[in-house]
Amino acid sequence: MADTRATDETSDNTGGNHSSGDGNPESREVEKIRDLKSVLVTSVLNLEELDVNLYRGTHHWVPRSRRLFGGQIVGQALVAAAKSVGDDVYVHSLHCYFVRAGDPTVAVLYQVDHIRDGRSFMVRSVRAIQHGQPILICQASFHKLQPSPLQHQFTMPMVPPPEDLLTEEQLIHLYLTKPNVPEKLRQFLNQRLANEVPIEIKPIQPQPSLRRPATEPRKLFWVRAQGHIGEGNMKLHCCVAAYISDYAFLDTAMLSLADYKAKFFASLDHSMWFHTTFRSDEWMLYECESPWAANSRGLVQGRMWRRDGVLAVSCSQEGVFRVQPVNHRNKL
């Protein structure tokens, strides 16, 4: 993923039609930046209002599983919920259940129910619907900021800054230049490159091999949204963070298992807590760990840290795993 982040100058002029002029490379780069911003904000998480408290999402990013990406459904559900509250409240948590696999060939309807409007908190329930049935149920809570002397947090892990690390895409390109890369791994990495994901990742300890040794189920990587989103709309940054939070999260539980692969895995639920202001288009450290796995299920927990060491977001997710040995052969 090329680093084509917009400057404040270009981001202030995104309206109307833009011509590439006489083929000036700089003009084409500005066009690319504007297009990228449009994909992130006005397409990936954009919803069409059909009626009061009823929205439709049509732009889908489909991962290798060929099902809808859970992070996008969570992010769009939060967008729908946020449209029903005022500017004086901020989302502080969401809790979602994935109840059916999403169909990438049809639109998703989002129906918002007003559960409670209190003096300090507001609660919304959102159902994501396809083929007349819910595929996700989301409860989102919003809060009016209330300063308090009760304040504490964990300490951010010490890691190299993102400027000293390569992106996931750069690491894959570098690895593919090496001789004797197994063909199966080469195909896998080329598939990763073909998936155009609107986020950037810089792993702290990259491991490109398919045959990984068993390690502590914990990983860290820097992450940010591609393109420029800007300040001012904290709810939008939370929606983008919801999208980001589901990427490369659940497979943390597989790190403790050597010589096995997941022939199937899927998210069962997803929860997030938003602690303070942040920008999803700036680097955040995503700390992922799995405290437990058994009975074909695994639990993962995550923390997103701002670069200044402030804990911005906490996440939790449980998934179902069907695993098999790497060298498994069907006996026919």
From TrEMBL:
Biased composition (Polar residues): 12-22
E.C. numbers: 3.1.2.1, 3.1.2.11, 3.1.2.2, 3.1.2.27
Phylogenetic lineage: Eukaryota, Metazoa, Chordata, Craniata, Vertebrata
GO molecular function terms noted in the UniProt entry: acetoacetyl-CoA hydrolase activity; acetyl-CoA hydrolase activity; carboxylic ester hydrolase activity; choloyl-CoA hydrolase activity; fatty acyl-CoA hydrolase activity; hydroxymethylglutaryl-CoA hydrolase activity; succinyl-CoA hydrolase activity
UniProt KW Acetylation keyword: no
Protein's name in the database: Acyl-coenzyme A thioesterase 8
Biological process, per Gene Ontology: acyl-CoA metabolic process; fatty acid catabolic process; peroxisome organization
Subunit structure: Homodimer.
Chief location: other
Keyword field: Fatty acid metabolism, Hydrolase, Lipid metabolism, Peroxisome, Peroxisome biogenesis, Serine esterase
Species: Cynoglossus semilaevis
Family named by the database record: Belongs to the C/M/P thioester hydrolase family.
Compartments, as annotated in UniProt: Peroxisome matrix
Biological role: Catalyzes the hydrolysis of acyl-CoAs into free fatty acids and coenzyme A (CoASH), regulating their respective intracellular levels. Displays no strong substrate specificity with respect to the carboxylic acid moiety of Acyl-CoAs. Hydrolyzes medium length (C2 to C20) straight-chain, saturated and unsaturated acyl-CoAS but is inactive towards substrates with longer aliphatic chains. Moreover, it catalyzes the hydrolysis of CoA esters of bile acids, such as choloyl-CoA and chenodeoxycholoyl-CoA and competes with bile acid CoA:amino acid N-acyltransferase (BAAT).
One term under GO cellular component: peroxisomal matrix
Catalysed conversion reaction: (3S)-3-hydroxy-3-methylglutaryl-CoA + H2O = 3-hydroxy-3-methylglutarate + CoA + H(+); glutaryl-CoA + H2O = glutarate + CoA + H(+); dodecanoyl-CoA + H2O = dodecanoate + CoA + H(+); (5Z,8Z,11Z,14Z)-eicosatetraenoyl-CoA + H2O = (5Z,8Z,11Z,14Z)-eicosatetraenoate + CoA + H(+)
Top-level class of the enzyme under EC nomenclature: hydrolase
Residue ranges of every copy of the Acyl-CoA thioesterase-like N-terminal HotDog domain listed in the record: 60-143
Limits of the Acyl-CoA thioesterase-like C-terminal domain: 200-320
Residues covered by region (Disordered): 1-30
UniProt cross-references to NCBIfam families, sorted A to Z: tesB
Superkingdom per UniProt: Eukaryota
